[in-house]
Specification:
Elements lengths: L12 E5 L6 E5 L5 E4 L7 E3 L18 E3 L2 E3 L7 E2 L7 E6 L6 E7 L2 E7 L7 E2 L8 E5 L6 E5 L5 E5 L8
Length: about 170
């Protein structure tokens, strides 16, 4: 972080995930565009994603596999497919510690929720945690360990060390 360089991209981005020093995926603020670079940000390319899918989070555990709040790619962005998430659960943060396991933090009405997949997004299920309304982010360094940060009041950090079975 001593020096930073600016790169021109085809659209404004709000979410980015870089599984390597040269490969990054980024999603636009409107949530209906994904761009990718394979040369460290020198050039960026628009990806084609399913229409009507709003991307509200992005996590790429490898240079070929990426999940974005309702869509996924398994071939480096050549094709993206829609995923079925529980009705009303709108992810605003996602963390994928492996190519098959992801945890997403989102909102369902006035309540914050955590949903998880252990089969590459084929199914997403709600976790047994009720984060504070307004929770902001989730980070999972392993398939069993995650932290949720944020909260609308004084804030809180919630953690799991057993794959979401219990949270403290």
């Amino acid at each position: 972080g001593v020096t930073w360089s600016s790169h021109t991209v085809p659209t404004g981005v709000g979410f980015i995930s870089c599984p390597s020093v040269s490969v990054c995926f980024a999603a636009g603020f409107a949530g209906e565009v994904v761009i990718t670079t394979t040369n460290g940000g020198t050039t960026w390319t628009n990806q084609t994603i399913p229409s009507g899918i709003g991307i509200s989070a992005l996590s790429c555990p490898s240079v070929t596999i990426c999940y974005g709040g309702g869509i996924a790619t398994t071939n480096g962005g050549a094709t993206w497919v829609a995923q079925t998430i529980p009705s009303g659960d709108l992810p605003n943060s996602v963390s994928c510690p492996s190519t098959t396991t992801c945890y997403a933090l989102g909102i369902n009405g006035p309540t914050a929720v955590v949903i998880a997949t252990t089969n590459g997004g084929a199914t997403w299920t709600p976790e047994t945690v009720t984060p504070e309304n307004g929770s902001g982010g989730i980070s999972c360094p392993s398939v069993t360990q995650c932290w949720i940060a944020g909260g609308s009041g004084p804030g809180a950090i919630l953690a799991t060390a057993n794959g979401g079975m219990t949270w403290t």
